[in-house]
Specification:
With 308 residues, the chain is of the alpha+beta class. The protein contains 8 helices and 15 strands. The longest helix is centred in the N-terminal third of the chain and has 19 residues.
């Protein structure tokens, strides 16, 4: 028995409900985790930074030698349809309709063989669900994280469905009663289990470089823009563990966390143990960015997201 909610989804050209969506047990996504995915936040019925998500999806597909089965406009049509179906099924209004659109493409169905088969049809899946944002208490007090060595593979820049390493890392924080696991590779900051990590020192926001050891979150570009708008320094470079432990502020970013302050790391306070001024500035800017790209009315078209 499953406990899947009857939420709308898209599978290989057809719209259906999650409990009714079926794929072959020989799908390479099921057998090998041979696929990629994207998660697009939706605010007020409007996909957020959709073009940037499509660009990252294309990068991941290219790494796996998979052609993109849909154009950006076709993906946007799928997302728009799912948003509308979700709104209808949950009776949510367009102004109270924050969702997460999940997109997944696997290599497709073939007999089990590690080599990449030719001429098979990819499995194309998308679904939507309610977005759960951090609580007011988490924003007011910050959250706790733990640290760990980064034991994952060295192609973290691919947003692949092979996520067992991230599952193990996230479970470490769950076991410790924390929100995330901040990881280090050879003594240098990489990322968290399901978030990017940002260090604040002397008013400058620092993050790991864009390389194969970190998944470049969509918020990389957004946070850089917010820093520029707020007059904050911004730099990407290798960050030693000692710098993280001596940070004035530590922040997480992701589609569902947006930007979130870390005030406790391995049981020790970060900075003064309270959310800092840089977090508050970035959070305020983030909320403004969300409002800027939303339609003015419930019936406004969604097409502007492709150029957001």
């Amino acid at each position: 028995m499953h406990n899947l909610l009857p939420l709308p989804c898209y599978l290989n050209g057809e719209f259906t409900l999650l409990p009714d969506a079926k794929i072959s047990v020989m799908d390479r996504g099921f057998i090998f985790g041979d696929g990629v995915y994207e998660v697009v936040p939706v605010y007020g019925g409007q996909p957020f930074r959709f073009a940037q998500h499509m660009a990252r999806l294309a990068r991941s597909l290219a790494e796996l030698r998979l052609p993109n089965p849909l154009t950006d406009k076709e993906w946007f049509a799928v997302a728009s349809n799912l948003i509308a179906r979700y709104t209808d099924s949950t009776r949510a209004s367009a102004q109270n309709n924050d969702q997460l659109i999940y997109i997944q493409i696997t290599r497709g169905v073939a007999m089990r063989d590690h080599a990449m088969p030719d001429n098979i049809t990819p499995t194309v899946f998308a679904m939507t669900n309610r977005m759960v944002l951090p609580s007011a208490e988490q924003r007011a007090k910050g959250v706790a994280c733990v640290t760990a060595d980064d034991f994952r593979w060295e192609k973290a820049h691919i947003k692949t469905t092979s996520l067992l390493g991230a599952v193990f890392a996230r479970q470490m924080s769950v076991d410790a009663g924390a929100v995330e696991t901040v990881m280090f590779r050879d003594g240098y900051l990489s990322e968290a289990a399901a978030s990017n990590v940002w260090l604040v020192k002397d008013g400058t926001v620092l993050g790991p470089p864009r390389d194969n050891l970190v998944l470049e979150g969509i918020r990389y570009g957004l946070i850089e823009k917010l820093c520029q708008a707020q007059g904050l320094g911004f730099a990407l470079r290798r960050i030693h563990r000692d710098e993280v432990l001596a940070a004035d502020e530590l922040l997480l970013s992701s589609a569902s966390k947006e930007v979130l302050p870390v005030t406790l790391l391995d049981g020790q306070p970060v900075g003064d143990g309270q959310p800092g001024r840089v977090y508050r500035a970035l959070y305020t800017g983030y909320q403004a960015a969300k409002k800027e790209q939303q339609p003015a009315t419930d019936t406004a078209p969604l097409a502007n997201s492709l150029s957001a």
